[in-house]
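Researcher: Please predict.
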Amino acid sequence: MIYLSLFWEFLKIGMFAFGGAYGAIPLIKESVLARSWLDEAMFANMVALSESTPGPIMVNAATYIGASQAGVPGAVVATLSVILPSFIIILLITMFLRKWLKHKNVQAVLQGIKPCLMGVILATGVYMAFTAVLSGTESLAFDATALIILLVLSALSVIYLLVRKKELSPILLIVIAAVLGAVMY
């Protein structure tokens, strides 16, 4: 039964996660917490781990959650089900719908979705910062070290952008965060 549950939940996530992985995090969170597959703290750790490892975040998250619930077969089921909708959509687009993507109304719909996705991504970032600094929403234990790391990374990003006129590499930010975490914790 767990395999069917994993398949169905991650299939739904794959179908409705328009805009990529950051848009999927709220969907994954809702599904995972509702089924008690992970708690809030483990979910935040899973998101951080999924971002830090190679590959798409949504696929990494599905693999992690599937493995935590049903071992390797669970990881395979969750991973395949989360990529299945995208695979089918891309296959259909390449086969039948190429000409429609250039249509004015289709482009208008896609442009209209972008602000919504920015809001979802912003909300996800705020949630992740909140849970990192407050160590979960239930106990509200303040983590000064996490706040310092968050502020240092934010300051580095802004300074780099102002000085070099380009964004700091996410890989470099992850490495800096890992070093700061190892030193400060």
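Model: The chain has a mean pLDDT of 88.
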